[in-house]
């Protein structure tokens, strides 16, 4: 059962009516009274629409993103960025963002260009005698094909003045498809593109044949094939600066040269250009859609990238775009033909003569073509960490790398370059390398782990303390550093340099209504307000995409870090043995106790954050860990007040999803000693008033996340060679899809899964395979213990002593161990689970579900494996 966490799973919405709740007084099934009990757990689960919430609901957090159409992908990328992005003045954009051009040199270049009779006439570009909007039936491809003429002539003048060769060129081939090393977005087409003169691609243009072995850029996926190779060509020799690992046959050089002029490699793209002949909201929206989609693809396609640029033109109104992992940003618009021609000259010279670092390439990553003995080849990367070069062997994870702004986490299996290895042991050793962008002020993973290990057994005492706990429960980090670029840390602050980000920046709407309402232009902060430092807009400029300054978007300055782990391991979601899966969760529960003894909460458990290394399951991805005392004292985690949710889809605690306490105490004191003997404490809670205080993540929430992971192992797998009918598996698939999905709120159905025993009973008896009866009973016992502890905490939150949680960790660990002892060993993915198309379904299944329930017979006692001797 090659299971991945649902941070890889998309969204399906199936709405069902709620099943009956309350105790089954007529049931003859056994009751679980103790972790070492010899009986089962009573419960009942109906088919429910159980909603999930990610830390940010992301349309691109799924493997199915590769199956989307081009238009759908572009729309998803727009939604990822949000409704608006920062809009800044030209002066700031040119001074802080664009590649540097000396002011005195630029002034001379502008004078020379404007004095050229072949370039400028009547105070406008000679090749644009009329605005495209004034032409009769203008053709976009024809109108803007002359852009390359302007580029070439301006660059020629600048080359003389700057006394250096250009590094980029502009290609205007609007009908040609960009070739790419990733299938995702391989069919992107641009009106024009600025590319590096020295190619970095694994093969130039359409004559590249994809190697049989997958690229290490991303996990295998492809519904969009690359362009077919031209006649009489097979593959292409990697041009400089690509470094071949083995000699490639030189007969392919000629084919490369023939197609070099048509090269549209995503690896070479530095700036995407999109044109429209008319200036109106519809055309602007289309340009924005295309340039954002292109930037997303370029950054996702190539791990060598730190940022990229874009240019959009509608008629004569021009905007320049900047995309990085910290933010997406756009300049104010300007007239590139006449009024602000010097700005356009500045833009061309900046892009044409930019260094690799200025244009967005990472000098600490080198592309390499590895030629295998069987004539297969694969694109790898040499990555600099702690002064040594490591070569990628396989891509382990590229979670959210397709998002423009964000962490862009990539994880590779790597080894030292042969020339870097000092001995045979280093030559054969493999490691895991994580490349990630985190907040500039955030602590690194190693800093957090060091602090946890220092504080263990000092905040709360831990029984049976182990001296080697760090190696048993946490990853061994060999290096954790900020990436260095040109002698400085790779951060947004260092990129901007001495130029502070403007406090009065505006907002640009990424998607504008085609018929925007009439606005009062005299109001402060209206869409017609000109930001400080911006030029007065031309009357022909559509103002629809200008947003109020009051709604100016925020962004997070990020730092680029790399973490090298000693062990590669594999995610818990890839364990194909339910017995082993539950055994690892028992081990992880002990790791939770160590974090508790240090006063830390993790806040982001998922199957992909638990790695099995050398037989032990270890806790990783510690970036979101916080000290609970600081959260409680409101020193951090203020984002909870504003609805920001931390965690991974499907495994977040329901209280964090819903933003309010869910386990209000029932009348009468709760007693730990009797809770499992009296299961009637799960009562209806819909009419309870929400707790008055803000919910903050505590230790119990981490225990709940591990329970969701256990339930995931039960719901998304089936025994090998199971004799279940396909209809039964379809029902299980429906429940699994409903439970583990992405939503921005917690539904009442999701709450019932952990709160109401009738829901658990139906899950065990009618949904899960009968082979899972015993193990699921024990796993559900964890929820019983946990809910009772929640109730005690929320009844006595002011005086609750978290030091007493060691008993809860011991009991839950014991239940997982017992569940593992009676679990099946050979399991596989639930049929249809991975391939299921995740799309919203808005339909009510009330009466139909009820009829299905009446037709469903419970598992016969003869097929149940009693827990008696567990």
Automatic annotation (TrEMBL):
Residues 10-22 have a biased composition (Low complexity). Residues 399-773 form the Protein kinase domain. PANTHER family: FUNK1 11 (PTHR38248:SF2), FUNK1 6 (PTHR38248). This is Protein kinase domain-containing protein. Residues 223-232 have a biased composition (Pro residues). Residues 1-42, 201-240, 522-552, 835-870 are annotated as: Disordered. Residues 23-41, 522-548 have a biased composition (Polar residues). GO terms for molecular function: ATP binding; protein kinase activity.
